Predict the structure.
Amino acid sequence: MVEAVGTVPSTVVLWIGAFAMILGTLVYLWLGRNVAVYEQNFFIMAISITVIAATAYLAMAFGMGRIAVNGEEIVVARYLDWILTTPLILTLLGVLANANRSLIATLIGVNLYMIVVGFLGAIADSLFVTLVWWALGVVAYLVLLYLLLGVLSDAVEEMPDDVSGMFVVLRNLTVVIWSIYPVVWILGGNAFGVLPVLFEQSGFVLLDILAKVVFGYVLLSSHETLRVYSFYGAERQSTAD
Ligand code: RET
């Protein structure tokens, strides 16, 4: 639960995280240099994700973004990052799948619950209480998986192959990567402490790079898919709600 912070190697890892997010932002800006109006929202959302994460990693690398709760030091910047960026990632997936607003709102609500109970688990001071919060977070995550793999995947079937193909790639990347977060979390300093701090930090940095930077790159580098999406999706959205 107490995270040994401020060691030189773990600070280096946080700087790597910050630079990866800044690099991702610059690549997206470059990819979006002549972006068509209909692609703008995708770019703005993806850029927001890496900008928020870059800010959180900068704060962490500067040794900031931690608060003491119940005598424990919590890396609050990480939870602020997750609470802001995971809804954006899910919105990107939802919009791509042409899901209606209530489904996107449901995805976000379940996801927020998952992150909030994860935060409660991090500030809990007994292993048992931490495990209870973690288990509740895992239940929320399973509901999220059901929505992503079931309802949202059904919605995308009405979209052209280009779009549904892109959705499936991004959905699979998301499902695989997101599933590793609770494992790193429970093995690290929050509960069992079998993962050394450096491994835990590096794990989260690597997962964040995949879930944010690689995810955004796959989406934004395909102008053709975004073009197909916009013509088909814009037309359908009016009847989808
Ligand atoms: C917690 C602990 C409680 C149980 C579960 C968790 C899952 C966290 C996830 C985080 C994903 C973060 C991403 C961040 C940036 O892009 C909160 C660790 C299930 C899935 C994708």
Remarks:
- The mean pLDDT is 92.
- The first strand starts at residue 66 and ends at 69.
